[in-house]
Amino acid sequence: MSDASLSAPLSVPGEAGMGDYWALLKPRVMSLVVFTAMVGLIAAPLPVHPFVAFVSILCIAVGGGASGALNMWWDADIDAIMRRTKSRPVPSGRVAPGEAKALGLALSGFSVMLLGLASNWLAAGLLAFTIFFYVVVYTIWLKRRTPQNIVIGGLAGALPPLVGWVAATGSFAWAPVLMVLLVFMWTPPHFWALALFVRGDYGLAEVPMLTETHGDRTTRNHILAYALALVPVSLGLGLTAVAGPIYLAASLVLNVLFVRACWQVWRRDRAQSDADRFAAERQAFKLSLIYLFLHFGALLIEASLGPYLGA
């Protein structure tokens, strides 16, 4: 971490409330973790006791929150520079960096141990690996060193459905692996669309986002390429036992809409984006959220209807 993280505003906390400690856990990111993990657990072919299912999802959520707290501890110096992150609890001085670090480490250990005791140790080990990958591989190693930070680091955010599946079954299968691949391939166009219209923030913080290192045109090319690569992955998941006609229909429509939105981003240049305040880029970013939510939502519907349809 750079010397900026040791400056007085970050080391002397203000008056922190419960809301500040909750914000440390990145609740928006945690909600995605909880939802995809829950779908992975419910879609699994083996029945799970409701209490075990609840504890498993809780542990995955806490592990995701722990990762967020450790991320905020390490990134406090660059968070203080970027407009969209400078009001976070650590850079604003409401929570000391040491507190964020201690909370993240404590919650990491708690979530992994409890998941192992409540479900199985394979799931616990996978959760531990997910936390390690997000904090050490992505946050500490990749984020400030390579424009491929989002691509490689996206694996951490993609693993929760597999953790949920393993918590239910104690084993791996192709269906949850494809769920992981779906989130993994979705992550770059999702974040690069955001990076196009918050570009100044990453430049000020010297984070080597693709928009900063290779420019708008390369970023737009990558967004479209990943959107196209998402199509066979999402449709391939539709051919597994966890999916069905509802998922396939939703996936076809969502892929058409998302590829079209990314094509609109690709065909523009910076001048056109500046003229309408990045309308197409913002639309692609918003649609990316709907894209992922509805894919997993369709899987959840299929899993819920399965017993009634004899599946």
TrEMBL record:
<feature type="transmembrane region" description="Helical">
    <location>
        <begin position="95"/>
        <end position="115"/>
    </location>
</feature>
<feature type="transmembrane region" description="Helical">
    <location>
        <begin position="162"/>
        <end position="185"/>
    </location>
</feature>
<feature type="transmembrane region" description="Helical">
    <location>
        <begin position="52"/>
        <end position="74"/>
    </location>
</feature>
<dbReference type="Pfam" id="PF01040">
    <property type="entry name" value="UbiA"/>
</dbReference>
<comment type="similarity">
    <text>Belongs to the UbiA prenyltransferase family. Protoheme IX farnesyltransferase subfamily.</text>
</comment>
<feature type="transmembrane region" description="Helical">
    <location>
        <begin position="29"/>
        <end position="46"/>
    </location>
</feature>
<comment type="subunit">
    <text>Interacts with CtaA.</text>
</comment>
<feature type="transmembrane region" description="Helical">
    <location>
        <begin position="121"/>
        <end position="141"/>
    </location>
</feature>
<dbReference type="InterPro" id="IPR006369">
    <property type="entry name" value="Protohaem_IX_farnesylTrfase"/>
</dbReference>
<dbReference type="InterPro" id="IPR030470">
    <property type="entry name" value="UbiA_prenylTrfase_CS"/>
</dbReference>
<keyword id="KW-1003">Cell membrane</keyword>
<keyword id="KW-0808">Transferase</keyword>
<keyword id="KW-0812">Transmembrane</keyword>
<keyword id="KW-0472">Membrane</keyword>
<dbReference type="GO" id="GO:0048034">
    <property type="term" value="P:heme O biosynthetic process"/>
</dbReference>
<dbReference type="InterPro" id="IPR000537">
    <property type="entry name" value="UbiA_prenyltransferase"/>
</dbReference>
<keyword id="KW-0350">Heme biosynthesis</keyword>
<protein>
    <recommendedName>
        <fullName>Protoheme IX farnesyltransferase</fullName>
        <ecNumber>2.5.1.141</ecNumber>
    </recommendedName>
</protein>
<dbReference type="InterPro" id="IPR044878">
    <property type="entry name" value="UbiA_sf"/>
</dbReference>
<feature type="transmembrane region" description="Helical">
    <location>
        <begin position="246"/>
        <end position="266"/>
    </location>
</feature>
<dbReference type="GO" id="GO:0005886">
    <property type="term" value="C:plasma membrane"/>
</dbReference>
<feature type="transmembrane region" description="Helical">
    <location>
        <begin position="287"/>
        <end position="309"/>
    </location>
</feature>
<keyword id="KW-1133">Transmembrane helix</keyword>
<dbReference type="GO" id="GO:0008495">
    <property type="term" value="F:protoheme IX farnesyltransferase activity"/>
</dbReference>
<comment type="pathway">
    <text>Porphyrin-containing compound metabolism; heme O biosynthesis; heme O from protoheme: step 1/1.</text>
</comment>
<feature type="transmembrane region" description="Helical">
    <location>
        <begin position="223"/>
        <end position="240"/>
    </location>
</feature>
<comment type="function">
    <text>Converts heme B (protoheme IX) to heme O by substitution of the vinyl group on carbon 2 of heme B porphyrin ring with a hydroxyethyl farnesyl side group.</text>
</comment>
